[in-house]
Amino acid sequence: MTKRIGDRISVEDKDGATTIVISPLRVWWKEMLLTIWVSGFTFVGLFMIYMLASGFAGLNYEGAPTEKQVDNQFIYSIIFLGFWSYFEYKTLKSLLWYRFGKELILIDTDGFSLKKSILSYGKANRYFFENMKEFHQAKEEPTSFGNFFENAYWSLGTDALVFTYNKKGKSFGRRVDPKNGKLLLNLIDDRVKKRIKKRKK
Known about the structure:
- The chain is an alpha+beta fold.
- It has four helices and nine strands.
- Strands 1-2-3-4-5-6 form a six-stranded antiparallel sheet. Strands 7-8-9 form a three-stranded antiparallel sheet, with helices on one face.
- β5 (111-118) and β6 form a beta hairpin.
- α1 runs antiparallel to α2 (67-100).
């Protein structure tokens, strides 16, 4: 039987294992605006690549462009495309995440598997109970520029839940609110204890 925590988290206990699925936070009008923005931004970048490849022959200079004018346009285009590539990657990945992404968590008798996938693509990481500790909610810093930047809708968003594995911090629960994050932590803690107890029998 599938249980739910809020609108985005589903939990299913089956065959001695617990499967948790965390869906992205979707806001239809923001997603629509992001789609339009990504489409326009992609067109601009591809046009700049075309202009760079064609040697800027299509630009409206008075007479034939000078070597200096072409060099200046080349430098400007390289700088622009550097910034464009970064934001194109970030926004396109975010758009694909909102439409086709999810976080998959599997808790069985041996450990905890975590996978962040888009269209089923993504690497599943395995964590064993004996090396895991200190599950807690990530500390929010609402006045931090970095936090604001990472939680803008065109970004993937920050993870709400954290644990330590082999002295290294690991995180999951992208954009999960504090209330549901606490409920999810309680559920994970309960299932982990049950699986460890079952393994010892």
